Fold RsmB/NOP family class I SAM-dependent RNA methyltransferase.
Amino acid sequence: MRLPGRLSAAIDVLTDVETRKRPVSEALKAWGLNNRFAGAGDRAAIGNLVYDALRRRASHAALMGSDSPRALVLAVAIRDWNEDPAALSDSFAADSHAPEPLTADELARVVGQLPDDTAPHILADVPEWIAPSIERAFGDNWIAEGQDMAGRPSLDLRTNILKASRDRVVKSLDRFHPRLTSISPVGVTMPAGARDARTPNVTTDEGYLKGWFEVQDQGSQIVAALGNAQPGEQVLDLCAGAGGKTLALAAAMGNKGQIFAYDSDRNRLAPIYDRLKRNGARNVQVRAPHPGALDDLAGKMDRVVIDAPCTGTGTWRRRPDTKWKLSPELLAQRTAEQAAILVEGARYLKPGGTLVYITCSILPEENDDQIVAFLKNHPDFTSLPPAELWQAAFGAAIHPDVETAQSGIALTPRLTGTDGFYFNALRRAS
Ligand SMILES: C[S@@+](CC[C@H](N)C(=O)[O-])C[C@H]1O[C@@H](n2cnc3c(N)ncnc32)[C@H](O)[C@@H]1O
């Protein structure tokens, strides 16, 4: 397919997403099944167009004076993919699979600039109602933070040090030109390409099948490392999901001690069994959810890790559709769950133990605010100093801007080149 046909397909996919309220991944898959002539390169390009349209939906729509799928996709082609507007329009006329040529109004708008009085949430490409929260989190830098959250993410891998060295992983993926991550000592990264670049399919690599590495954003690797789980400890991973953090903790502990991996959702937990086997993680006991599943652990854990259910605002680069679906109701639901899980997690700690709280959110309501509320009712807990945790994990001084008011650590695409994550470690008095 040539670019005009790909643009047309992206408009169809976005229309499908909007009219049928479908997740983007589902709409892209359906398009591929209905258009089997399209190759992997076409599907990747169409996916990039759709995701780019959603990443900068607000500013594309403001510039074009419309948020229709056509307006958004044309804006991506010209603003993000640097196509020449007149040449693009001419190429439409010569291609039977192309969208209609650009109108005079579209041509004039797409080469213009956003006016000086453009609302800040449009410049930041975030929903208007959530802008005050993002401003509270980042102060004067909040628009720049929003803009970086509208970029493309890198593909990051975590070396499974139980089975391989980072050098070995780099060598096995040589053909994708991997680089070392900037902070995580076990990470490997492949920067996002431009335009129609395809994301490397690393999960068919023999190194992946042998358990040498896992796909894991560097931010997720960093918070797992800050958790500071030590060989021989008793650790409860209370929201283990498919086990991304569990596997990182097992490797950090050198398979020594015991991790109890639990999740209240059986379906989310299901993939963990295969992943543990592939990774050679032998110190993990999976506890399936049933009443009283964790009762025997009360008061006994050295460390309880809460990778809390959250709005996922830190992952907007990867799932930009969720940015526009976020609602005050969903945020309220997540914050209520987080408050309850923090109290629940504290129950399993022994005196002197550490409660590790993690979210993949950038919103203070889910981060520092939760810590303030928890500490108010749990005066026997104190936050551990971020600079010391960072030094212990990475042997380097912490970037000053990642420290939050409540001794938390907030990672972002702009500050650390990672997804957005929040971390806070709370020590219980002995
Ligand atoms: C952010 S995800 C965990 C991701 C996972 N730790 C990883 O690294 O791949 C949050 C998880 O919390 C689980 N969850 C939600 N409420 C819970 C609760 N009350 N107790 C335990 N798990 C819960 C969800 O099912 C979800 O799998």
Remarks:
- The chain has three domains: 3-114, 155-215, 218-428.
- The pocket of S-adenosylmethionine is lined by residues 238-245, 263-265, 268, 307, 309, 337, 341 (CB under 6 Å).
- The radius of gyration is 23 Å.
- The first strand starts at residue 155 and ends at 159.
